[in-house]
Amino acid sequence: MKPGTKLKSAACDTEVMVIRCGDGSIECGGAAMGEAKPEAVGTPSADFAAGTLMGKRYVDAAGTFELLCVKPGKGSLSVDGVALQVKDAKPLPASD
Amino acid sequence: MNIALFLEMAADAAPDRIALVCDGTRWTYADLLAGARGAAALIRQSGVAHVALLDESSEAAVMALFGAALAGVPYVPLNYRLADADLGALLARISPALIVGDGARVRRLCPDATNVIVSRADFVAQAQALTGDAPVDADAGDDVAIQLFTSGTTAAPKAAILRHANLVSYILGTVEFAAAPEEDAALVSVPPYHIAGIAALLSSIYAMRRILMLPAFAPDAWLNLAAGERASNAFVVPTMLARIIEAMGQMVAKGASQPDLSALRAIAYGGGKMPTELIHEALDLFPTTGFTNAYGLTETSSTVALLGPDEHRAAHGSDDPVVRARLGSVGRPLPTVEIEIRDEDGRVLPPGVPGEIYVRGEQVSGEYRERSALDADGWFPTRDAGYIDADGYLFLSGRADDVIVRGGENISPGEIEDVVMTHPAVAEAAAVAIPSHEWGEAVGLIVVPRAGHSAPDEDELKQMVRARLRSSRVPERVLFADALPYNEMGKLLRREIKTLFAR
Fold first, then answer.
1. Which ipTM value was assigned to this complex?
2. Domain locations in chain A?
3. What pLDDT is attached to residue B155?
C-alpha cells in the first residue's frame, strides 16, 4: 500500500484515497478494502455501519493512517479492527 | 493523488451546481469535468510535452489546468504581458507544447512546427466535443502538475515546478471539501499565470465555492461583478484594493449610487506589500468584511502564512503599538508549514532578529526545472528577508537580494522606507543599493511626494533617518519621482529604480 492508492469497500459504496499509511489492513464496514471492487458487494457489519462522508479525512489515533473519502457509503472505516476518526481541522480563512 | 480528483469530487457531489461564471456564461461542475476530460483526450492526441495558456482567464484556463493534470502533462500558464523577446524565450523552453490562446503571437515569436496551437474558442469546443477518460485512479502525485515561470524581478525567469503532491497537500491542509454554502461566490481577478490565480481555482472548486472570473481587472468591472453576482469572497493584490477604494470614492464624490457589496464577507490579499494606511482605510470602509493577508510564493504552492480577520480587527482597533504593528505582518504560519529565520551561515535566529525566511512542508516544492533549492532537511530558502516577533508573527522586509550592504553592514530597505513614509509629504518611498566608492554600496532613496504637497526637503528626510535609525542608514542620494515602477501584480521593480540612480 502506498499514498495515492484508491481503495474500494467490499461492504458498501465507499471509496477512499490513501493519503498516508503504515502496516495494517484498511477496512470499511468491517471488511478489507481493495483496489478492485468485488463482484458481490456485502453489507457493513453492525459495528462498522456509521457511514463515511464525502471529502472527510479519516485518521487513526497515532496519525499513521490518513484516508480521504472520495465516494461516501454506509460502512465506516477501520484499520485492523480499530475505528478511524474524522480528522478535526481548524477551519482557516480563505486565503486565495 | 492527482489534482483533477478535486474537480471529480465536486462534480460527483453536485454535478448541476454552478461552478464558474465567466463573461456571463455559467458552467456547472459536470460541465467543467466533461471539458477537462475532453481536454485531456486532446492533449494526449497531441503528444506534447507541455500545455500552455497564453490568454486571459476564462473557462479554458480551468479545462486546460485539469485536462493537463488528467493527461499527466505539465500545465504552463504564460504571462501575456511579457515583452516579445522574453515571451519568445519562454516559448522556446516549453516546445513541443499545446498552446491555447493568442496563436498569431505564438507563431510570430516561436515558429516551432512541433507546437499545436489552438484558439480559446476552438480549445473549449474541442474539449466539449471529445469524450473519454475514466475517473482519476491511483496516482502517487509525483508528476509535475504546474510549471510557472517566476516573475524574474531580479534575474531571468526560473521554471518553478509544482507536483500534484505539493498542491494536493496545500488544498487538503487549508480547505474543507464542499464547505461553502451554495450562495457563496469567490471573485477571482488575478491573472491565470500567477500562483494565486491557480490556487484560487483549486481552493474554490474543492470548497465548492462558485468562481466569478474577471478576465481583466478594472475597478468598475470588479465592483459590478461583485455586486451583480453577490460575491462573498475575493482575492486582490494591494494595487487592486487601492483602485477599488479610489473608484468607490469617486462614486461618492459624483453622488452616484454605490454598488451593493453587502454579501462580501471576506477579502484576502497578498502578492505584494500592503501599505498600512490602505489596509486601515479598507477596514473602515468595509466594517463587516473579514480581511486576510496571505503570504506565499510560487515555490510554496501559494499561502504559507496568514493574518486572519480577527487579528486584523484587533490590530486596527488597538492602542497597543505591538498589537497595532501586526497589521504590517503576514501573520503566522499555517499549521501544516514550518517557518524559520536564518542568518547567512544558515544558523537559526531568535525572535526579533531579521534574516532569510526558510519554509518547510509538504506543499513546499522549492524545485525548479533545472534543480531543487531545498536543503538536505527539506527547507526552502525563500530569498525573502524578515523576522518573527515574540508571539510568532512573521514580518517581511523585502527580498534578501535587496539588502543593502554598506561597508559590511546589512541594511534592509524596509526599515528606511518605513521611517521616510511617516513624513506627511511622502506618498511612497523606496530604498535601493547604489554603488559607492567608499562603502561598496550605499543607500539610494527615491520618494514620490504626496499629491497637494510640495516635495519634502532632502536634508529633512536624511535627518529623520539619522534620528530614528543611525547614520549608516542615511541616504547618500535622494531622487524624487511622480510614481514608482511596479509590475502588474503590484511588485515593486527595484531593478528599475536602481537604473534611475545610474543615470
1. 0.93
2. 6-37+44-86
3. 65
